[in-house]
Amino acid sequence: MSHQYPQFPGSFVGEGVDDYILDAPVRAICAAVGGAIRNSAGIDLYHWRLFLVYNENTSIVFDMAKNSTEDLQSVPRILRKPYAVTNTAIKVVELPLASATLTARKLWEKLYVEGCLQYSYSSSGEGCRAWVSKTICVWESHGFLAKGAHENVLWPVISRVWTDPNHGYPNEMVHGGFH
C-alpha cells in the first residue's frame, strides 16, 4: 500500500513510511548496486539505489525505478526496509555525511526542488547510475554530504559495472533525461 504526501507529488511512498521516519535523523547514506536483469536486447542491467540508514534494523530506500525493463518512464519511490542495507547488493558505497541533522524529508525535498524526481531512462533502459550520481552531486552541493563525496568516494565505484564485489570493469555511464 502506498500513500501520497503533498510535498512529494507523483512519488510512490511505501508502507511504513510516516512522518516519524521521514523526520528522524539519518545516520548514513549508502549507494548500492544489485544483481543484473537482462533487457530484451540481451544487455544485463544492474540497478543502483540509495539507502538512508537509521540503524541496523531500519532504512529508507530512495529509488528511481521503472515498472518493467522495457518501460523508460520512472517512478520515484520511498520504501522502508527492516535492515540497514540490502544483503543482496553486489557493491555498497557509504558516503561521508557533512551534516548531523539530515532527514529523509529534507533530502527528498531537495531532490524535488532541484528537478531530480522526473526522470526517464535511456532507450537501452539504462540510467539509474546517472540518477544516483546526480542525486549525490545535488546533496553534496547543498552541504548534506562532505566535499568530494561524489568525485572521491562514489565515482570510482559507480563508473564501473560490478559483476561481483571484487570485480568491476569501466563502463561509460548512460544518461536518461530529467524533465
From TrEMBL:
InterPro entries: DUF7770. Residues 39-178 form the DUF7770 domain. This is DUF7770 domain-containing protein.
